[in-house]
Amino acid sequence: MQEMTQQIRESAKRLLEQGQVDCVLGYRKGTVPMQERPFFAYTPEDADQLVWTRFCVNNLANFLIGRQDRIAVVAQGCVSRNIVGLIQEKQLTREQVYVLGVHSPGMVDRGKVQEHFPNRVIHSVEEDGEELVVSGADFSERIKVRDVKRNNCYTCTHRNAVIHDELIGEQGKETGGGNMDKVAAPWEKLSPEERWERLEETFKDCIRCYACRDVCPLCYCNQCFVDENQPQWCGKTVEETDVLTFHLLRAFHCAGRCTDCGACESACPVGIKMRMLTSKLEKDIRELYDYSPGLDLESTPPLSVYRPEDPEPFASG
Q1: Which one of 98, 211, 222, 234 has the fewest CB atoms closer than 10 angstroms to its CB?
Q2: Where do the structural domains in the chain lie, given as residue ranges?
Q3: Within 10 A of 231 (CB to CB), how many other CB atoms are there?
């Protein structure tokens, strides 16, 4: 990963020195372990702060919305797919963004790491091949990366950037080896009543902080439906009805657009597994329309266009 970091810094410096871009969007070291943070490098000197580690989990496409300048962005598979989606939806142009494509090795879930060390304060986590060296005031232990990856990284189908202007490092394996359909499978085995019970159980701890919405590159509306009051689509409370209305409507807004980047789960302060819901929608869109979002700049998300031959199983019988 050190070699990748160095290549990213060199490319960023070159682009800024030559005036090809106004800034480079990547990641820098976080102030706490396992939380690298988004970073805008505006000068060649700034580029020395860029890093590439297994803790780069924010979806950087979220920071491209509304920008008018020429920007380079470090993009693994899911980020590049969201860039494609934003271009499709006219939120930026292809000429505006310079994609530094990278291969994702599968990112680490800091919550899973902490679970290995209950009631202990982690001071640092260093990568050593396929292991992490986790240290605190009175301990230093190794754990396997494969045991603490983010859930979506196990089922990722496009680890390499789907579009790029410059490739950093080499392309690697496209998949994490997991089966995305198994995430949706629990819903499909349940009756409608059981599905509702599972939904209630999944979201019962939601505190309506909107972290899932704020980190999602799909949620770029100037005013979210939950913030409207004329008409008021959704109440402001943490009562079950209001909570489920928010999550269900947001999920349907993401149908046919979600790349399963996992940003929503990573940001949730109470650990809600929102992919249980979005994975089912992803599977339905893929099977009904033979479409996976963010792979083709020339395509149109299926729910953004009407065709007479569209499948309509809901209208049968």
Answers
A1: 222
A2: 2-109+149-315, 110-148
A3: 6
